[in-house]
Write a structure and sequence with these properties.
Chain lengths: 464, 238
């Protein structure tokens, strides 16, 4: 087992026993579910909306070459500097280079999973820049020096009291149980930073090809401030964020808000098409867009799983996933947790090191059923399992399944397993759940059914 | 109709009453029942674990034998999904691919077969109890079975169906997953047991014995007052 896999198991063991954690996540998600269902009911036909969204993203991903160039050309025509990064390191270097050239000291960021993916905050801090996250949830996890727990709700695992304590210790504010006051504390602190910041870094929800625009959606308005107050704005875009047409937003934005957060539409939806133009009252003096691959074209080369690039990072598959609900976001040890993370991480970061995530699923399919862009998530988990075995089978598993095939293909041998099973059952109570028990993985926490006097096949034979 | 029953290995071994009940019900409805003795497993454990070659070795026997049938009926949504949905993927690009598609078209999960193929819902069953129904994930999401078992339960005399808050929430079994990640599987099972207990029902019913094996195994260990019964067994009570 790889170290990450061992860590995953150890963390899963600890957190699944933590009943407080289980309760917390279930309560948080219950509220989300109620809001989501109410908003979903506003769609006259959610299933055909999903189909249309899937077709839009299919078109985008299958014609990525064309749409990316169109996107870049339109942006450049209005004075944006477009950069292309194949790897995380290139993306970091481009961004660090811009910050250095501008002699920046303070960098303010709005929420972006792509920057998490390349560990940008670390790199910026190591290079001597001060970095401040402006999304409230991200701000909180940054103060805790944690990674986001969820791709949409980064601080979902924390309760008010913990946030109040955190602010008290880190910012010196008096403890409070009032959520508005907590928000105001963060806001006051952040406003001050916005004014001082030299560079604003944002993510991108949708990269609109036909108009060359970056669409950014936030609930706190922090995306707008990050994009308009500092002189320099940098947007990091995973290349799969492309959508062909501006009008596609008419479906995708409400869809993202509904399934992602149970909202009709997110509060602030901004479109950036370039730096401040001569006739415009505000906006950054300089606008940089960094288009990043970082393993995405590798996923694209896999025809079976290419649709995983349709993902709009809504978080729905995490919310409905019974695994995610029980182990929480941090256990995955990846930037993208939950079903979508288990599907794409092996492609982005190496199959053999990350295959355990694809095995850590009951394949219930709740993710696939909920995905707004119809990614066949749980079937992709099965394909990752197959690919991992093809690349490097686990020796004892291979023996076990060779034996499995050997026994089940020989009816006489299979018949023998019954008396053997019955015999084993007599002695089993002596070793049940102990390290000697071959069925320990099951029997430590669950009972096994008993083999009855007559199996079905024995009944069938006796009838004839 | 000549109905060929496929009795999965664990139903044969641990839950013979499920198979026997199916035979009784189908014969009572006037059908001839056949059950190929040489078949034991659909190959799902190997398939789900990524060992597709071994899965194919086992599955090919099922495929060829079952394809001779007029219709195939299966006691478990999970094995049903394997044969109906995943064989097509498992045999894709092999000479047996066409056969996998043919078999898929004539394979039915038990409740789906009764309601949507035979058009019967009232089997004259009596079961005076409050029950709740658990939707097995494979039956629900791979085969789209949601209404058929409820239509059947609605006609059972004396039975009261109380839906639990999350009938579609996975019980945590997931085949080899339950042994590979027992801590996660157990936590999921505990959550499921909680949902079942909330209804105050005497029995949890499902069309998949594998889910019931997990739910019951956990409930018994944790002394939770949950009794489980497969839909076919319940329907055979007259
Ligand atoms: S895979 Fe689908 S459900 Fe999951 S985050 Fe992406 S778009 Fe949302």
């Amino acid at each position: 087992m790889t170290t990450v896999a061992k860590q995953f198991k150890a963390d899963a063991r600890r957190i699944t026993r933590d009943l407080r954690h289980r309760g917390l996540i279930l309560t948080a998600l219950k509220k989300y579910e109620a809001a989501r269902d109410a908003r979903l009911a506003k769609f006259p036909d959610w299933q055909s909306a999903r189909q249309t969204a899937a077709e839009i993203k299919w078109d985008a991903i299958n014609h990525l070459d064309k749409y990316l160039l169109e996107f870049a050309a339109k942006l450049e025509a209005r004075g944006t500097k477009v950069h292309w990064a194949s790897t995380a390191q290139q993306a970091r270097e481009i961004i660090l280079g811009i910050c250095r050239d501008r002699k920046a000291r303070l960098v303010i960021k709005s929420k972006s999973m792509a920057t998490e993916e390349i560990h940008l905050n670390d790199a910026l801090e190591k290079a001597g820049f001060e970095v401040v996250e402006s999304d409230l949830g991200e701000f909180i996890v940054q103060l805790r020096r944690e990674t986001p727990y969820h791709i949409v709700f980064p601080a979902m695992h924390l309760v008010r009291g913990e946030i109040s304590d955190l602010f008290h210790h880190k910012l010196g504010t008096p403890p409070t149980d009032n959520p508005e006051e907590l928000t105001m504390i963060a806001r006051r602190w952040l406003r001050h930073k916005y004014i001082q910041a030299d560079v604003g870094i944002t993510g991108c929800n949708f990269a609109v090809a036909d108009t060359g625009m970056v669409a950014i959606t936030t609930n706190e308005g922090n995306g707008r401030l990050t994009g308009s107050l500092p002189k320099t704005m940098i947007t990091l875009v995973g290349i799969e964020k492309i959508i062909p047409r501006l009008e596609d937003l008419a479906l995708l934005q409400p869809m993202l808000a509904t399934i992602g957060a149970g909202q009709l539409i997110t509060c602030y939806n901004a479109l950036y098409s370039g730096p401040r133009q001569p006739d415009e009252p505000d906006g950054p003096e300089e606008f940089h867009v960094v288009l990043m691959d970082n393993g995405r074209t590798r996923l694209m080369a896999d025809a079976e799983q290419r649709d995983a690039l349709h993902c709009i990072r809504c978080g729905s598959c995490l919310n409905v996933c019974p695994i995610y609900r029980n182990i929480g976001g941090h256990t995955y040890g990846t930037t993208y947790p939950g079903p979508v993370g288990s599907v794409i991480t092996p492609h982005l970061r190496g199959l053999l090191e990350w295959k355990h995530l694809s095995f850590a699923s009951s394949l219930c399919g709740a993710c696939t059923a909920s995905c707004p862009v119809k990614i066949c998530l749980h079937h992709h988990l099965l394909q990752n399992r197959r690919n991992a075995v093809r690349a490097k089978p686990v020796w004892w598993e291979k023996i076990a399944f060779d034996l499995f095939a050997f026994i089940f293909n020989r009816p006489w041998l299979y018949k023998l397993t019954k008396p053997l099973g019955r015999l084993g059952q007599v002695f089993h109570p002596l070793i049940k759940g102990t390290p000697l028990d071959p069925a320990r993985a099951w029997t430590q926490s669950r009972d096994l059914p008993r083999i009855p006097r007559q199996t079905f096949k024995e009944y069938w034979r006796s009838r004839r | 109709m000549n109905v060929t029953l496929f009795i999965p290995c664990f139903v044969d071994m641990f839950y013979p009453r499920v198979g026997i009940s199916m035979v009784q019900i189908l014969e009572r409805l006037g059908h001839t029942v056949d059950c190929p003795e040489e078949l034991a497993c659909c190959g799902q454990p190997a398939f789900n674990s990524g060992y597709w070659d071994q899965a194919r070795e086992v599955a090919v026997h099922c495929l060829r034998r079952l394809n001779r049938a007029e219709v195939v009926v299966i006691a478990s949504g999970s094995c049903g999904a394997m044969i109906k949905v995943f064989y097509k993927e498992l045999f894709a690009g092999t000479p047996d691919e066409k056969m996998a598609h043919e078999l898929s078209a004539k394979t039915w999960e038990f409740s789906d077969f009764l309601v949507n193929k035979l058009g019967v819902t009232d089997l004259g069953a009596k079961f005076p109890a409050r029950v709740t129904f658990h939707d097995g994930c494979h039956g629900l999401r791979e085969l789209g079975i949601k209404k058929a078992p409820r239509d059947l339960l609605a006609k059972v005399q004396g039975l009261e169906l109380v839906e639990m808050p999350g009938p579609e929430v996975c019980c945590g079994f997931g085949g080899t997953f339950s042994a590979k990640f027992p801590m996660i599987s157990t936590a999921m099972g505990e959550h499921k047991c909680g949902l079942i207990l909330e209804t105050g029902a005497e029995y949890v019913v499902s069309n998949d014995s594998s889910c019931l094996m997990h739910i019951q195994g956990l409930a018994t260990r944790q002394h939770k007052p949950i009794k489980s019964i497969h839909l076919a067994e319940l329907l055979a009570h007259t």
